[in-house]
Write a structure and sequence with these properties.
The protein is α/β, with parallel strands linked by helices. The protein has eight helices and 13 strands. It folds into three domains: 2-67, Beta Barrel (OB fold (Dihydrolipoamide Acetyltransferase, E2P)), CATH 2.40.50.140; 74-79 and 86-232, Rossmann fold (3-Layer(aba) Sandwich); 246-306, Probable gtpase engc, domain 3 (Ribonucleotide Reductase Protein R1, domain 1), CATH 1.10.40. The longest helix is centred in the last third of the chain and has 18 residues, at 289-306.
Amino acid sequence: MKMRGLVIRSTGSWYTVACEDGVQRECRIRGKLRLRGVRSTNPVVVGDNVCAEQDERGEWNICDIAPRRNYIIRRASNLSKESHIIAANIDRAMIVATIAEPVTAPEFIDRMLVTCEAYKVPATLLLAKSDLLADRADEVAAFHRTYEDAGYEVIDLSAIDGRGVERVRQQTASGITLLSGNSGVGKSTLVGLLNPALDIRTGAISESTGKGRHTTTFSTMYPVGSEGYIIDTPGIKGFGLIDIDDKELWHYFPEMMRLAPDCRFYNCTHTHEPHCAVIRAVESGEMAYSRYESYLKILDEDEKYRK
């Protein structure tokens, strides 16, 4: 017997598939699917539309994966596998960031945004734990300015006073939303607010490191609203880019795309050329220096991986 369904949870060896008959089934994957995904650590991911079949022992196996319309991917820590796909077939990404307890590095945010741009996934930034930032108004304003000027929506969010939760609820009421960010920024807490019926474990910040402790171990898709789903992902420490050509990297910084037509050279790399509109914008403050610094760091990292 074969059954179509949606992968709603992945543990690396087992996959929970919400089947078309309304039953959730625990499935493994067949060896041939592993071979297809040889460049990835995980050939099947949350958000995949799959076909599963029952074998003679009564166990269920994923036997086919439908073509993905998009996905979010990063460089795997196991470089022999090259890549790790975080989720597939998503309608939007929400990147949860904090500027206190813990601090999210701007480069991490920018790498996530580059990947969203490259794979055509609309992205929104959630500035979490806003209740802790009453005396840091200048930093909050700078965060908004940096990313809103680049073209992204920024929502101030607080699980304590409910700030921004309704806006997120409205945006996640339909379609599939990927929730991503470092450990300890409040992703699981947000999912619990969006669907109070869920029993989701959350954790505290480590006093010794100032970083979050992992509470979400595996990527899981939860229902939110009447027609929405949200994918809660394990905290990510780093986000290495993959399959993005250096010559095209600036295409995934929206503000650089707007500025580049004013560069003197059509093939400007925006790193050293004279009369570069991007460099001029950084010097004048029209483009945030942190965004440009992320661009240069990504170029430098890619050069190391090519050696």
